[in-house]
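Task: complex structure prediction.
Instruction: return structure tokens for all chains below.
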Amino acid sequence: MSRKASLSGFHEWLPAERLVEQHVLDTLRRTFELHGFAGIETRAVETLGQLLRKGEVDKEVYAVSRLAEDEEVAAGRREPKDPADPKRLALHFDLTVPFARYVVENAGHLAFPFRRYQMQKVWRGERPQEGRAREFTQADIDVVGDGALSPRYDADVALVMAEALGALPIGDFLIRVNNRKLAEGFYRGIGLEDTAGVLRSIDKLEKVGPEEVARLLQEEVGASPEQAAQALALADIRTSDTSFVERVRALGVTHELLEEGLTELADVVATLHRRAPGRAVADLSIARGLDYYTGTVYETVLVGHEQLGSICSGGRYDALASKGNRVFPGVGLSIGVTRLVMRMLSQQMAVASRSVPTAVYVALTADEDWSEAQDVAALLRERGIPAEVAVSAEKFGRQIKYADRRGIPFVWFMGRDDAGARVHEVKDIRSGEQHAADPADWTPPAEDLLPQVARAQD
Amino acid sequence: MSRKASLSGFHEWLPAERLVEQHVLDTLRRTFELHGFAGIETRAVETLGQLLRKGEVDKEVYAVSRLAEDEEVAAGRREPKDPADPKRLALHFDLTVPFARYVVENAGHLAFPFRRYQMQKVWRGERPQEGRAREFTQADIDVVGDGALSPRYDADVALVMAEALGALPIGDFLIRVNNRKLAEGFYRGIGLEDTAGVLRSIDKLEKVGPEEVARLLQEEVGASPEQAAQALALADIRTSDTSFVERVRALGVTHELLEEGLTELADVVATLHRRAPGRAVADLSIARGLDYYTGTVYETVLVGHEQLGSICSGGRYDALASKGNRVFPGVGLSIGVTRLVMRMLSQQMAVASRSVPTAVYVALTADEDWSEAQDVAALLRERGIPAEVAVSAEKFGRQIKYADRRGIPFVWFMGRDDAGARVHEVKDIRSGEQHAADPADWTPPAEDLLPQVARAQD
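Output:
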């Protein structure tokens, strides 16, 4: 992590770091599959028309073009294309927009409600800052229905993510839940009709503080000081149970949409409070910048690392995907895997027990033993023990050093007894202990079989 | 597979198809790790300077640019860039060139010989044809040394790939091995100095036949009819053991480089013949188009699907990566995962036993049982059994249909006995068999636990 990326914003991990990332991805996948989510991948490129459909112009998009075509344009042999041509190709900047397209295209082949997970790289041409990569991996789950989708899924997906994050060596986290209808209904109830504008200002609350947001609300949305104060009073409400409902009612605002949002959020928070106590709160300051959310919205902070921003965000979208009159409402959450792994590595929250999968390094006493040593390794691998074979009969000290540099715990020796018969011994190079072993039945302790990724000691 | 890609050359799988691809990737990863290869990923983008360093101009490269910049250029507010600017970004078209850069950049942090696997998407802006995707996944293994690398690794990597491919439900395959030194030494020995030109012509042998290649050799490389005949006689040699050596000698050509190549190839083929009988042959027609190979080269055909082209190719490269005077010779092989999976799916060589991970669908008798049903599912998941819970107490027929459409084998029912106590039953919806079960200890048969991907019946 002290290494500098050779291209700013494009991070690459060393093998031991990649093991931490792989552990995160494997753990997430395992949890998602235990909950019945099917894995899919979508292509890395979308048309600009698709990507910008929901007005996501604030995302810095990477366009893609065939080099041969660019050269023909530069040479005057081809007409330049409009850079904003909706048919132009660009790299996806999240997995939700591509998933919505996938659902619409494949609706006839999918069973709804469709539960899917998707773990892929995405790209944004942003200015790189700490925690802002230009290439990063997201891990998403979504449930999408055909026509309608039970509100129970709003709690379900958050519970799955709570379980997934809880299985990672990252310590405490808190899922903060709000509801767009609640917020929009409240704003309308106090006479602010530009609800998107209010949300944009409220979204800046943690960054700039309440006074600045009050000023923004008055200057940019035309709120009165009283309206600004009420919007801020709403955003100040945060409870771990459904008591937020009373606190909202105490503000004395009424609106049909507000009622709907209160009911929905109370249902979600009650379920989370019961099934994942301490993992979630109702937090009415959560806005989520994205236009396509229509109900529940989520953000997640890593406790003690709040300035990192949200590590797992999402929401309910009732109209992101549609095909003629047919709509596919969905709800989902997305983990920023790269952001999380960068933090895990830079803070040494988790470490891999070695840098290679190998558990046993089979040493060579004589060069011509190589094939027999491969037989030993093959016997070990048959029982799931990763093994490598030396390629030449160097001094044992050098062969042990090969294992030591990689953190390989065991070195296997093939010798001869006084009668000239083959004898096998295995050495734990950490303790120096060495004893006779049979390649057909020796096994290492379970914790040495594969590289372990664990929370580092505090 | 009958679906048409919405962007030509960019394939996306349905969930059941993705399970086949995932099975391929999991199997490869497992084999690579058992052999001590460490997984890494490199960024999707490289600079054009890196990508085109080895003269790979025949690959159609996708350039990447920030849309915002393109728009400024179009509006005349920014100078257009040279499309061939070596600092320009582009998507990688293979994993070998990026890996070479990674090794050079991180040499101080890696232990050599460095064994790594890498499974990622790559992109080529080619005209899509059957089997030629514009976005596809490659699975590579390479071993790279610091200064020198034992020739034993040339056999080692081929054996690992033979084991990996042998673990896939794809039937027979054959790794065809040749050696650049052997071929180049032979061509020089018969007086043909433009060895790259000869290789380019020989590379077309399977496509256009020997007569056309003879014509090409004479027209494009300036060979005499006798020289062309000798080059073709070499390419005609194919043996499963080291007897190719005698057959080459019988052609009466001598050259120092030829001798070196014969020795190297004989060593590799002898090892493969002994340790993976029937999986590999010496095939002196194998040329490999890429410039960077310097010794052993490999291609692999799927028996009965030869027209698909090579599914696993690679070779030894002694000079791809260097840093000042320090060189990092390597040898590796790359599986064309997408090409292979497309064939597996289109020929129905393998099928997934269901389209979702879920083994048990917990039905609801009453809406208010949802949380208790989640407790049942949680108990199952604790034992590694993927489970989903219904969100509403629809008619049992509809709930069973939900499971049936997805291929979920078991439906769990929560009822009450006459005394009002909770009773659990589980139904195998394939046989209709239903019996009492305890959520704390019931387990499905091993073959129903997770989706199975198996070779389809012939």
